[in-house]
Amino acid sequence: MDLVTRRRAVYTGLRPYFDDNGLLLAIKLWQEKYADKPKYAFSEFLSECCKSKELRAQRTHILSSILHAIELPEKEMLADPFEELKPTQKIEQAPATASVGLTEIFEALLNAFLSKVSNKEQLTVRLYMINHIAELKIDNRSKLKFSTWVEQKTDTQPLSYEIAHMQKIINFMYVAICEHIGPVRADQHLSQSIKEVEVLAKAEDVNLYDFL
Amino acid sequence: MANLKAYVISSSVLCLLLPISGMAAENVDIKVLDTVWVLMAGAMVFLMQAGFALLESGMARAKNVVNVMMKNYMDLCVGSLLFWLLGYGLMFGTNATGWVGTDLFGLAKAPDWDFNLLFFQIMFAATAATIVSGAMAERTNYLAYLIGTSGITAIIYPIYGSWAWNDHGWLKEMGFIDFAGSTVVHSVGGWCSLAAIMLLGPRLGKFGSNGEVRDLPGHNLGYVAIGGFLLWFGWFGFNGGSTLAAGTNLGHILLNTHMAGAAGAVGALLMSYAMRKPALMTNAVNGSVAGLVAITAGCASMAIPYAVLTGLIGGALSVVGVKVLEKMRLDDVVGAVAVHGLCGMWGTLAAGLFLINDMFNPHQIMVQLIGIGAAFVWVFISAYSMYWIIAKTVGLRVSAMHEQRGLDITEHGEIAYPEFNFDSAYSADRLKDLQKL
User: Fold this and answer.
1) What are phi and psi of A20, to 5 degrees?
2) Is the dihedral of CA B292, B294, B300, B302 positive or negative?
3) pLDDT tens across B98-126, in order?
């Protein structure tokens, strides 16, 4: 299946669940990071693009929708989204329909921070965090939840914690990234991640400095 | 007519004055000249504090600049008070045993010359303490650091100083040569630094898991250069003032000092090229400081060519020493252990090797080695014990959260460059939003 057809299939599967802006962002994400990956990578793709509570709750349905759309004949798929969606449409960072809370901002910051390192470095950073999880001074249940998130398991639960724990987790990730790429780049990545998520945080009246 | 009158009057006044001034020149007390020189030299050594502050903060990252400068600033303040209260007496008081002085504490009434000496020596004590601040930069609890400074200026430095510089100190009586303090000041600072960084551990991310050493560049190389210049200038007072007299030998001493500093920078660059490294400015400045450290012991007792040799080797050693420490995974932010500890050691040995009119005298060399060894044993053990106790009580190292935020924010509640931290996660206008740690 060529790229355009696969893109049409993913678009067809996602269409009922996302608005235009969110859909364009999701397709862009899929094309950049997941286009050349096998079907089971859709889980990871959806965990990355389904940020709001509503979308997260429907992830299983969305996954089924995409897998179903892939099996459809071409004539039953929707047109290529890059032709259908107007290119002049302004891309917003957050899906317009979603209400994003503290947990989602926190996860967005974690994802943004981690995504700044290369894929290879990300693997070693995740491994470092898993191996040093005992040093994270939060309760065991929270530690387990975070560990599951780090390992990118499909049954990952939302990282809903008290602010103090979120602060410790951000710092834990900061230490892990420092140890792998040095503190100069780690500081730059943290700063860039904050700038990326700041708009989202302001829209939801979340003070990013609470995590720092 | 009026002009003629003015001429006659002024000429008469001059004629009256000249014999008086001529008589006054003959009667000027040499002690006044000595006093003026020693106090001026002390003021020059004071300026070295600014040199250290600039050099160390220039080699630190921007988010820790205030912390580095505050350490240097308060070294002078805390050190001055404690050295006056306790250290000066231990160092220069009546020393019946040869080990420690027993009077002159908190000097309030004394002959004028004692006050001159106290002023001069206070600056030396502050120098010894401030050497440590650079090595420990970017991850040390500020209060813990000040407690360490107190221990150094009140006890560690003056006790060794009493052995080497007190008239009845056991090292001095043995004939130990350390004219202005290659060991007494600089190695003391260097070994305290070594003890501290062994206990502190490296900065986050300095050393990789595969043995790689990451370069954490300083935020302002201009500061480093200007700091180097100020230190060099102050060193003329440091070494020249140690004569405690405005004598005709000052030119030789200052020339030895200057030439060693120059040779030190050259030695550092030559070693860098030999190691196939670029000509880094930090190495050049550290090299000249290393040369100045090295010549400090023998600046009054060496011929100029040997001063050059001493400085040249000191500069080369400073580059090698930094690499050795990195291989041992010891993180010294400014190279204090190499520049002050190692080169202080070398300079003290060189003072024995190149003693004018008595070169390579085995007995003198042995005495120098004893003095060097005694310094290391006393200073390293006492400093390590002191920092160990501090670590167990107040806490020596800051938390990872502190390192993330930067010590300027966590220890001092301010940012050094509030209008220029574009790449920083933390901005000055939002400091109040941060939760207290």
Assistant:
1) -60, -50
2) negative
3) 999 999 999 999 999 999 999 999 999 99
Q: How many helices (H) and strands (E) does chain A have?
A: 11, 0
Tokens, residue A193 = 């991640």
Contact (CB<8Å) B400/A175: yes
B65's tokens: 């600049």
A179: nearest CA partner in chain B: B205
B327: Cβ–Cβ under 8 A, 6 or more apart, which residues? none
Nearest chain A residue to B138 by CA: give it.
A183
Which among B236, B201, B228, B174 is positioned nearest to B387, based on CA atoms? B201
The rounded distance, in Å, linking the Cα atoms of B361 and B368 is 11
pLDDT given for residue B15 in this prediction: 52
Q: How far is B210 from chain A (nearest CA, A)?
A: 10
Residue with tokens 């209060």: B143
Residue B10 has a pLDDT of: 59
Residue A56: both structure tokens together = 């997260």
> Distance between CA atoms of B373 and B209, rounded to whole angstroms?
35
Of B41, B380, B425, B381, residue with least CA distance to B241: B41
Separation of alpha carbons B337 and B333, rounded Å: 10
Run of H or E residues at B399: none
Within a 13 Å sphere around the CA of B136, how many CA atoms are in the beta-carbon half? 33
Residues A209, B205: C-beta atoms closer than 8 Å: no
Q: What is the pLDDT of residue A77?
A: 87
Chain A CB contacts of B410 under 8 Å are: none
State what percent of residues in chain B have pLDDT above 70.
94
Asked whether the CA dihedral A190, A192, A198, A201 is positive or negative, the reply is negative
Structure tokens at B110: 């004394």
Question: A–B: how many Cβ contacts below 8 A?
Answer: 61
Asked if B430 lies within 8 A of A188 by C-beta distance, the reply is no
B61 close contact with A: CB closer than 8 A: yes
Give the burial class of B371: count Cβ atoms within 10 A of its Cβ; 0-12 exposed, 13-18 middle, 19 or more buried. Answer: buried
DSSP per-residue letters across B189-235: HHHHHHHHHHHH-PPTTSB-TTS-B-----S-HHHHHHHHHHHHHHH
CB contact under 8 A, B217 and A183: no
Q: What is the pLDDT of residues B74-100, one digit of tens each?
A: 999 999 999 999 999 999 999 999 999
B207 phi/psi in degrees, rounded to 5: -115, 130
Give B326 to chain A, closest Cα distance, Å.
Answer: 15
- At how many degrees (to 10) do helices A102-115 and A163-181 cross? 0
> Which ipTM value was assigned to this complex?
0.87
